[in-house]
Amino acid sequence: MKTLYVQVLIGIALGVLVGALWPDVGVQLKPLGDAFIKLVKLVIAPVIFLTVAGGIAHMGDIKAFGRVGVKALVYFEVVSTLALFVGLLVGHILQPGHGFNIDPAHLDPKIAAGYLEKAHHGEGLVAYLLHLIPETFFGAFAEGNLLQVLVIAVLTGFACTRMGEFGDRMAAGMSDLARLFFGIIHVVVKLAPLGAFGAMGFTIGKYGVHSLIQLGALVATFYVTALVFVLVVLGAIAWACGFSILKFLAYIREELLIVLGTSSSESALPQLIEKLERLGAKKSVVGLVVPTGYSFNLDGTNIYMTLATLFLAQATNTHLSFLQMASLLGVAMLTSKGASGVTGAGFITLAATLAVVPDIPIAALAVLVGVDRFMSECRALTNFVGNGVATLVVARWEGALDRDRLSRELSQGPNASRLEVVEELPAD
Prior knowledge:
mainly alpha
């Protein structure tokens, strides 16, 4: 009972039980999940800033940092595109929407319009790039915009590398301060079982198991596809990098359960950073790849986008030609980057994709509203695992991964007592 992942499992099980038996009570538990996620978000931005800025300052080699960024973006684009293709392929072969015969005229268009309006805020490459620059230094921290925090961290780190002894003192200070925030995380994460209980109780209580049964084919297809992607595609990538995907999943099992319980990959982001450093990845690489991957390496979201789009086409008896499906793949490659960092980004990016594929009625989005919360859990889990694997791969690619430490840590597994010792974080 003292092990965190067991406590989280119990919290999830109790949440499901309460939500199923007493739906009204389950809905009232939502503040517990929201409060836990807010507590985690409280420290995410400072952790990202201190990790990245301190890592660059210690690294000293600006060219090496730029090289890591390019390698990370190349990896993200290749694997993300592969995820989109997998979703498209599975949707075409299994056809989970076949036989629904939905008439879009009988659906409420206001539901889809609300998500489409949010999607439009992420359109435009120039507007997106401008959005990366915060209005003020502290504005990015106040809004919790991780990419803007990353921009500030990079600038700060570069500044430290040009300030000699003073920059060295600042780098040491940021490393000490980072330990403080990781200490806060260890305190907050004790509340994870309570957060998972509240979030799961709300999900089951509000949407009910009946919505899962109604669209069970789509939900099951998505979960199986995501699992196959993790075990086969990411497993092959991990194998090529020299580690086992199963051992890696076991190593981050506590974080995976927190993500499952809260339906948010953000809820375990700081813990992922810490564990990747323990696995032997250099701090500066972890600090760059994890936050950028959170926006550009959304494997689960990408699988969902193409699979859900084909489901809606099949459910509304909308025929898509091979050329249209190829166009869908190309459009999804762009829209998958457009609403990153927005709450419910998977559903919002799906709305943006449907808006530029006019053959599929946009009102059909209303069909998925009831089960999107259940599917968001799988999206978050797949995104989380994908970013962990990406970080280790880029670190190996850059020669910034202690392979002996990686093998030793994965074989031993996470030790509960060691997770409490912040001072053991590896230095660059």
